[in-house]
């Protein structure tokens, strides 16, 4: 497998974006190896996906499966003990896993992006110890960064700070090892700065109300996290939100993750629907054929759904490679670079949302009434995509793309754009 940069290069310089990401693409060997690993994990995840969805409990055993197969350290540089894989590879792994269990795949995708905030927000800092812990301990990182909740309070207390407040939709926080968050410091050495920090899940004062009870993504551990006077020391500081173009490239990465998960919902639904259709032993009495699998109207429906899904796949593959190119620029990323990437990914968000919703709903037309049984679980794909696609309104993604196309207008940078 290829690595992003050689160990000698990484060891010779302080950590920066350039030591993590070179802008080069994954080679076929790397992609094939990790795709095979992901396929193995996906097969095991699929066996328990419906049970995890029904229980709604934190997917602790499933996350152990990710660790066992080396997926926790996938994008950690090789010199720190990780696999040193590319983002194209990471997004492909997520897509394969999401076909089997979108909840677990979402947690892993967030882990890759949250742990990489060590570089996005900590450029120039020595982050080697953080990365080594991720690789050596197979750590998984989550976040408490929901921007629509009131800000957390980070108030100076001696040499450190005390963190207080509530963050909803903290995906994976109750099930992973480390939670990354941010708050504007009040007092102390970082007064007035937006501090990015990471704390272990079990730290005193961190509580999980267990309030995630939604239609889909039920095993994503996406409930709230409450911080009650949690100590945040200097050793917990990852970096600072300075609003640089490079640091904000993490947000298009999150949106790209969503696009791949939505695509996976369509792919997974089609895979299961195909099995169900082939297993149907009869046909509609007016069709003139022996089985539903021979019915031209069934062929037409599948043809439309498959073709549209393939188009989304082509766009996702292109942008997965593009992400490696942009973040490989490191601190040299310009506002224009960032804007183009944002708008391109917004386009994927639009089509992946609409195609996935359509596919996961219409597959029932070719699988029949028996496929609506709860024990079949075909509805899981629709429930997941319907729930997660409301994360941020897709109509605003359309306006992002349209305003840029017409006027070159770029939306204000946020954790959604």
TrEMBL record:
Family indicated by similarity: Belongs to the DszC flavin monooxygenase family.
Domain Acyl-CoA dehydrogenase C-terminal: 258-392
Name of the molecule in the record: Dibenzothiophene monooxygenase
Ranges of residues in domain Acyl-CoA dehydrogenase/oxidase N-terminal: 35-136
Coiled coil: none
Location within or outside the cell: Cytoplasm
Source organism of the structure: Paeniglutamicibacter kerguelensis
Keyword Oxidoreductase (UniProt): yes
Presence of keyword NADP: no
Pathway annotation from the record: Sulfur metabolism; dibenzothiophene degradation
Domain Acyl-CoA oxidase/dehydrogenase middle: 156-230
Leading EC class: oxidoreductase
Keywords, alphabetical: Flavoprotein, FMN, Monooxygenase, Nucleotide-binding, Oxidoreductase
EC numbers for this chain: 1.14.14.21
Gene3D superfamilies recorded: Acyl-CoA dehydrogenase/oxidase, N-terminal domain (1.10.540.10), Butyryl-CoA Dehydrogenase, subunit A, domain 2 (2.40.110.10), Butyryl-CoA Dehydrogenase, subunit A, domain 3 (1.20.140.10)
PANTHER family with a match to the protein in the record: ACYL-COA DEHYDROGENASE, ISOVALERYL-COA DEHYDROGENASE, MITOCHONDRIAL-RELATED
Cross-referenced Pfam families: Acyl-CoA_dh_2 (PF08028), Acyl-CoA_dh_M (PF02770), Acyl-CoA_dh_N (PF02771)
Catalysed reactions, as listed in the record: dibenzothiophene 5-oxide + FMNH2 + O2 = dibenzothiophene 5,5-dioxide + FMN + H2O + H(+); dibenzothiophene + FMNH2 + O2 = dibenzothiophene 5-oxide + FMN + H2O + H(+); dibenzothiophene + 2 FMNH2 + 2 O2 = dibenzothiophene 5,5-dioxide + 2 FMN + 2 H2O + 2 H(+)
């Amino acid at each position: 497998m290829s690595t992003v940069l050689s160990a000698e290069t990484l060891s010779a310089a302080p950590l920066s974006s350039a030591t993590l990401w070179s802008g080069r693409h994954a080679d076929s060997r790397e992609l094939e190896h990790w795709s095979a690993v992901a396929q193995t994990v996906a097969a095991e995840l699929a066996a328990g996906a419906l049970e995890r969805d029904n229980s709604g409990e934190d997917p602790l055993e499933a996350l152990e499966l990710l660790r066992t197969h080396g997926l926790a350290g996938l994008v950690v540089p090789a010199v720190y003990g990780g696999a040193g894989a590319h983002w194209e590879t990471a997004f492909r792994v997520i897509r394969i896993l999401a076909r089997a269990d979108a909840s677990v795949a979402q947690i892993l995708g967030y882990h890759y992006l949250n742990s990489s905030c060590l570089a996005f927000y900590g450029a120039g800092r020595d982050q080697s110890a953080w990365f080594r812990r991720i690789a050596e301990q197979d750590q998984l990182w989550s976040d408490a960064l929901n921007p629509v909740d009131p800000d957390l309070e980070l108030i100076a207390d001696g040499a450190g700070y005390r963190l207080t407040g509530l963050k909803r939709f903290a995906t994976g926080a109750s099930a992973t090892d480390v939670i990354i968050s941010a708050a504007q410091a009040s007092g102390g050495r970082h007064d007035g700065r937006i501090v990015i920090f990471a704390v272990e899940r079990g730290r005193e004062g961190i509580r999980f109300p267990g309030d995630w009870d939604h239609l889909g993504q039920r095993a994503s551990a996406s409930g709230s996290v409450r911080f009650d006077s949690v100590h945040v020391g200097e050793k917990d500081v990852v970096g600072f939100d300075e609003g640089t173009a490079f640091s904000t490239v993490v947000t298009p990465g999150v949106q790209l993750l969503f696009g791949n998960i939505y695509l996976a919902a369509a792919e997974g639904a089609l895979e299961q629907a195909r099995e169900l259709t082939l297993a149907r032993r009869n046909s509609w009495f007016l069709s003139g054929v022996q089985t539903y699998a021979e019915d031209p109207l069934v062929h037409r429906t599948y043809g439309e759904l498959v073709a549209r899904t393939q188009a989304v796949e082509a766009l996702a593959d292109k942008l997965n490679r593009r992400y490696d190119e942009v973040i490989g620029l490191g601190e040299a990323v310009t506002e224009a670079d960032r804007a183009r990437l944002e708008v391109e990914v917004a386009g994927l968000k639009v089509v992946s949302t609409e195609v996935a919703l359509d596919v996961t709903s219409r597959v029932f037309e070719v699988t029949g009434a028996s496929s609506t049984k709860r024990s079949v679980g075909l509805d899981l794909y629709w429930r997941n995509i319907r729930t997660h696609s409301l994360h941020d309104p897709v109509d605003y993604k359309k306006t992002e793309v349209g305003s840029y196309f017409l006027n070159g207008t770029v939306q204000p940078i946020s954790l959604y754009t």
